[in-house]
Amino acid sequence: MTSTSTFDPPLTAAEARVLGTLMEKARTVPDSYPLTLNSLQTGCNQKSARDPVMNLSEHEIAEALDGLRQRSLVFETQGGRTTRYEHNTQRGLGVPEQTAVILGMLMLRGPQTAGELRLNTERWYKFLDIASVEAFLEEMQDRSLEKGGPLVVKLPRQPGSRESRWAHLLSGPVDASLMASPSSENVSSALLEGLIARVDALEAQVKALEERLERAGA
After folding, report:
1. Per the confidence metrics, is the pTM higher than 0.90?
2. pLDDT of 143 higher than 60
């Protein structure tokens, strides 16, 4: 079974990771946002809260930024003597905030259930309940062709799973048959996820302070 997608041309894996990372850092570490190329590379390649884990070079990230700029999904700004980057996802795609938040998380962590999305997006946007997440997912799946077509697809429920997972379609059709169910090794408790997120946030804040001190001493 292969899903259909009307988002053309589709985002590359690198473009999706760059866009998702900018969306994440805008909400979790606003003091260091917009991001420098170096900070963006660190965020794209971090080993926590990413699926799959990637190792993008500066050249690959620069190419992804160029592609996203052409779609008006990313803007370039000047912060001191350093070029910085910020996303324009909500306006670029013409979607509400909640939809953009869900798409960003799907780009960063791959297919997820509505419950996982509600938990993982808690620091981005506080959805009232799982039903609220499901409502936005269904709205994206039923999006009319006049508005650009579906943005997500509901994957077949895996054997032994209680909920179906959802995947975004911004990178093209999703072959559901290739989507393996999450292994126990990849399933983290809410506490562990929260601790990892806090460590990431603290590291980003320290990096932002170092950049400020460096600019002040220049």
Report:
1. no
2. yes
